Amino acid sequence: MSPNPIQHQTFALTTPLYYVNALPHIGSAYTTVAADVVARFQRLLGHSVSFVTGTDEHGQKIQRTAQEKERDPQAYCDEVVACFEDLWQKLNIQYDSFSRTTASRHEAIVREFFQRVWDNGDIYLGQQKGWYCVACEEFKDEGELLEDHYCPLHPNRQVEWRDEENYFFRLSKYQPALEDLYKNQPDFIQPTMRRNEVLSFVQGGLQDFSISRVNMDWGFPVPENPEHTLYVWFDALLGYITGLLQPEDEPTLERVLERGYPFQLHLIGKDILRFHAVYWPAMLLSAGMPLPERVFGHGFLTKDGHKISKTLGNTVDPVDLVERFGSDAFRYYFMKEIEFGRDGDYNETRFINTINADLANDLGNLLNRTLGMARKYCGGSVPNLDVAGISPENPLKALGDSLTPQVRSAYESLAFHQACGASLSLVRAGNKYIDDRAPWSLYKQGEQAAVEEVLYSVLESVRLVAYLLSPVVPHLSTAIYGQLGYSTDFDQPQSVRETAPFEHHGTWGALPPGQSLNKPEPVFRRIEVPSA
Ligand SMILES: [Zn+2]
User: Fold this and answer.
1) How far apart are CA 367 and CA 356, in angstroms?
2) Which band of pLDDT confidence, cut at 50, 70 and 90, is reported for residue 531?
3) 162 C-alpha to center of ligand 1: Å?
């Protein structure tokens, strides 16, 4: 069905490299699930994928946190990194590379990159005076601070006055090149509201930014002057590049270019947009490296309509959530209920209602009762009919034919809520169709051909939905495929390529007539509402 031949280039994407000053929070889990959905969808299309996640482990904040806990910074980082890896496993995240900025091969990449920028004349020594937020690891303009010099992003932390010698990166020199980039590549920053924020920031005039710190040694020494430590952001952004290296690779920029660089997509939260949409492309231009295709800044999460804040005791623990409800439910709620790019809310009642209504009732029960009827009326197999003979007037076929292009374009534009919503509309049409056609009465009237068309159409629609939702709910999709008589495992890209390639399974009508169905079993258990 795909009009374009499958491209064999690598689709490379990243989450941020998460800062290890604290355990993974719900926002990191949200970004990572979204990136995993994108990666899985690209694999479903048959593309090769390089999905990089990881951790940013340097900087003053880590050094201080480790000190407070009386820990060696590396030991402290190792411990927190293990918690990230553990959560990603629980959430069924299939990354290809976990990039740690404390890795020795990362230092080699940083040195080479720094040298290129240095040789290009874009680094100079200057005096940095200003207000510094250690939590942001960023200098702030006086004007953006709250009263009494509190950071707007960390309203419980005062910024610190700094007056020190730093190395600077000539960001100002790249203002025209960046403006050209935003003009010639209008999709470089998404969504549009984020693009507009960046455009107005850049129009305000770019200032050089400092890329080294003194009196701080948790980081890489500046190659030209080891009294200075490289600024954590300079080092962290380069962790994406290091992440593309295979374990056996020499750590060089040349090698990275053969490993799927540049990136098609950087997924980030809106708070780190400037680093990715302004500083990062300028650094890459200076080092003569190709630019990424797209930077997408998603929104923030709230809980029950309120800002999530540790200080307020208003947090959502992703570990607790996935342990109570499972990875599919977690993934589905955040992808379906929030328009990616906008702020979104977590509310437990809404979570439970959404999961029960969509996955347990509408989808799970539809499959279950249709399988029951197929056993009764069709001998436990997919009805043996001529699929090509199903009338285009059949409402499920009509919807099914248009669903794949719609869902595909939704995934490609990161409109996950639309991908889920469109898929669910076919499920709801399936429920309505079976009620309207009442195959149990058709059977009594001896209308066997009609019974078979109804049951086939519903089973096939459930199959197509399971296929298209597999990037979001891979366990559920595997269970549905199992019920329909397939052996496909949606957690195994190899299995999907061999048993369910997109060109065939992405089309309504792929379910083979006569295929043996399995004994109906619930594919998704309802979440029981805890009684108050
Ligand atoms: Zn701050």
Assistant:
1) 15
2) low
3) 15
Q: Per-residue pLDDT for 6 more than 60?
A: no
CA distance readout (Å), 232 to 79, 118, 310: 20, 17, 24
- Average pLDDT of the segment spanning 369-385: 97
Q: Round to whole Å and give the CA distance between 348 and 527.
A: 11
Residues with CB under 5 A from ligand 1 (ion): 133, 135-136, 151, 153-154
Q: How many CB atoms lie within 10 A of CB 262?
A: 16
In whole angstroms, what is the distance from residue 111 CA to residue 119 CA? Answer: 12
Q: What angle do CA 303, 307, 308 make, to 5 degrees?
A: 65
* Distance from residue 337's CA to the centre of ligand 1 (Å): 29
> 49 C-alpha vs ligand 1 centroid, how far in Å?
34
Please list, in sequence order, all residues whose beta carbon lies within 8 angstroms of the beta carbon of residue 93, skipping any fewer than 6 positions away.
32, 33, 35, 36, 53
Residue 247 Cα to ligand 1 midpoint, Å, equals 35
| Cα–Cα distance, 382 to 390 (Å, whole number) | 15
* DSSP strand pairing (10-19 vs 225-230): unpaired
What is the CA(59)–ligand 1 centre distance, in A? Answer: 14
- Amino acid, res. 298: H
Q: What is the CA radius of gyration of the chain?
A: 26
In the reported structure, the alpha carbon of residue 168 is separated from the centroid of ligand 1 by a whole-number distance in angstroms of 21
**C-alpha dihedral over 240, 295, 170, 204, to 10 degrees?**
-160
Residues 324-353, buried b or exposed e (16+ Cβ, 10 A)?
ebbbbbbbbbbbbbbebbeebebbbeebbe
Is 142 a residue whose pLDDT tops 90? Answer: no
pLDDT-derived band of residue 4, with 50, 70 and 90 as boundaries? very low
Q: CA separation (Å) from 440 to 44, 213, 262, 370, 372?
A: 37, 75, 57, 11, 11
| pLDDT the model gives residue 9 | 78
Residue 135 tokens read as 């939590």
Tell me the per-residue pLDDT of 455-510, one tens digit each, with 9 for 90 and over. 999 999 999 999 999 999 999 999 999 999 999 999 999 999 999 999 999 999 99
Residue type, 508: W
Q: In what order do the strands lie in the sheet with 221-222?
A: 212-213, 225-230, 221-222
The Cα 23–Cα 225 span in angstroms is 33
3-state secondary structure of 168: strand
pLDDT by residue (tens digit) across 219-278?
Answer: 999 998 999 999 999 999 999 999 999 999 999 999 999 999 999 999 999 999 999 999
187-206 core/surface letters (b: 16 or more CB in 10 A; e: else) = ebbbbeebbebbbeebeeeb
Contact assessment for residue 299 and residue 268, using Cβ atoms and an 8 Å cutoff: no
- Please compute the mean of the pLDDT values over residues 281-294 and round it to a whole number: 98
